[in-house]
Amino acid sequence: MSMNSLLIEKEIIHTINSYLEENKTFKVKKIIPYINSQISKKGLNLNQNGIKSVLSKLLKKKLIVEGSKLTRHDILENSKRQAIYCFVEQNPGSISNVIMNEVQVSNYELYWHLKMLEKFDYIKIGTIQGHTAYFATEVPPKEMNTQYILNKPKSKRILFYLEENDIGVTKTKIAEDLSMHFNTVAKYLDLLHNASAIIKDKKSNQTLYFPKK
User: Which of 25, 92, 170, 201 is the most exposed, fewest CB within 10 Å of its CB?
Assistant: First the structure.
């Protein structure tokens, strides 16, 4: 992108911000004449097709969104929304109930903030094992299932236990020490092994589990 193009894009973003500060909603068709009049006053040479082209790029980057009164820059200025985003970023694969309890917002508030974060490409949604889970946009799709499993409380307990007992432990021993049902332990060990988060090794007719180094 040339220096002149960067200057024009920066000026258009500034003009959009001024427009939205008047409590107006961003709509491409309505804002083009406004942008045209404002940049003309500053001697910038750009016709309506040129403005449309810049707006198309900004929309693709999710810097602006059709029908919103905010820009991407504004989204995290809301303290609750920022807290929700930070929690999702640090706890990939979290479900809504966990986020709601952690950030202490109502179900309606959480839904609204999650939609805004998704709309402006801060987070994305995945359906895993029948649950709706939330991830930062940067998490690759192929890692979403693994991140969801690793973030589950029982997974964390088992992983921590294996790290503290890294000489190899049986399912029965894990179930006893963690006071978890044997079938629950078996289920989570399978999930963690399939996610390549732990090592399973058969020795002397016993299957032992180890943390992955």
Answer: 201
Q: How far, in whole angstroms, is CA 126 from its chain's centroid?
A: 10
What domain count does the chain have?
3
Q: Tell me: do 118 and 156 sit in the same domain.
A: no
Tokens found for residue 87? 């929690």
Percentages (nearest 5) of helix, strand, coil residues in the chain:
60, 15, 25
Q: Which domain CATH number covers 99?
A: 1.10.10.10
Structure tokens at 69: 């009164």
Radius of gyration (Cα) for the chain, nearest Å?
25
The pTM assigned to this predicted structure is 0.83
Whether the CB-CB separation of 37 and 51 falls below 8 Å is answered with no
44-101 tens-digit pLDDT: 778 899 999 999 999 999 999 999 999 999 999 999 999 999 999 999 999 999 999 9
Q: Which domain holds residue 203?
A: 152-211
Question: How far, in Å, are 66, 163, 180 from residue 148 at the CA level?
Answer: 31, 20, 20
Q: Which residues are registered as beta bridge partners of 131?
A: 128
133 shares its domain with 169: no
> In angstroms, rounded to a whole number, what is the distance separating the alpha carbons of residues 66 and 9?
17
| Per-residue pLDDT tens over the stretch 109-132 | 999 999 999 999 999 999 998 999
Same domain, 131 and 186: no
Same domain? 181 vs 131: no
Q: Are strands 131-136 and 206-211 parallel, antiparallel or unpaired?
A: unpaired
